[in-house]
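note to self: the first set is below, dont mix up w the second
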Amino acid sequence: MKSSQTKRNLIQATIDLIMDYGLEKLTINKVIKQAQSSKGSFYYYFSNIDDLMKETFLYTLNHSLVEFSYCKEQSFEENINQFGHYLIKTSKKKSSAHAIMFLWISKCFQDENYKKQFQAMRKQIIEENTVSRELQKMFQVDIEWLYMCDIIIIGFLVHCVLHEDEDELLSIWKQFVTVIMSHKS
């Protein structure tokens, strides 16, 4: 239990440092100092700074989704509409989880190494996050559908940050749900 806490401390220190100083100034030594850990602990969990960044991205993705769960008593469409409400609510919090995800994505446009890591994580990001696993289990959605939704959700989150009118965002989301319902197998 203590060892998993050490890993979480290293990841949280990474999040804090990125939020304060950005990706470019992140170093192993700064992470260790912020986490009040040791190099040995760092290298026990991560092979290098890129490995830490990958784990931090996946952690923030799942952490951003942890508060949402599907309701078995509601239809698939109602659950997807609830997920839209959840995305709007969480985007308004200006969470570090969303910031880390978008910083990582933007870094992919600048750095081929980040792009390759992101591509290698694609399955974990889209198919194996907490919401996708629950969707697959409860509603037997196919993988192609998850990839289509991921594309739309990223754009929707950007609009959630840019638009203040939640009613307009909900209207946009409901139009999206109508379209994806016609493609669900």
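second set (the one i keep forgetting abt)
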Amino acid sequence: MDSEPEILVTNDDGIDAPGIRALAEGLDAVGNVTVVAPADDKSATGRAMSSEVRVHDHDLGYAVEGTPSDCVVAGLEALGPYPDLVVAGVNEGGNLGMYVLGRSGTVSAAVESAFFGVPAIAVSMYMREDQFGEPTAVEDYEHAVDATTHLADAAVETDVFEAADYLNVNAPHPEADATGEMVVTRPSHAYDMTADQHGDTVALRDRLWDAMASGDIPDPEGTDRRAVLDGHVSVSPLTAPHTTERHDALDDLADRF
């Protein structure tokens, strides 16, 4: 690429989160960064989409009263130069496992970009459950930003995005015993959601976070959750469209309708 790449940066924690500032500052060394991010925290909104959003100037770029997917569409189509790469993050907390891909606003921003045909990276920093609620600072995201700038600096010009629509990156927390190694992974298929009724409320809990905290997880080597727990930076190359699995049993049901 002869000129600096155009990079659109967004997140789901909101434009005032330290993770997106760390990411924007880090990627500034790689290309021309335009930030278009939610004005408020929009975590776990998936690919929720609005029909109209208000936009405000912000010292980082543009604050949008909408979701991460809104920000990608607005950024690509209206607010900034058309990007060569979209980067979402750094999310405060890991986005690990197959089941979180549709929930995560961070990952959903990357998926939205992929449907436009623009390569994307979703990046998150794993935190233990007891670390949530503790304030984070820009410098806490060093591992995640270093990994992302490394990928952003080279991936668009290589064949990485010939086979993958987006990369899901998860880095260890700075207090973790990080190895400094980046490993290519696949999302874990492990799933352990529970629900308990207490009067007129139902408490929903993801038991895999408990397993992560104790180190006792069912994930084999090669999965994203195992890699991060072992102190590595996990990179999962993923595709955005759902695949179609045609099979005789469903053909038979359709024929009998």
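remember for set 2: The mean pLDDT is 92.
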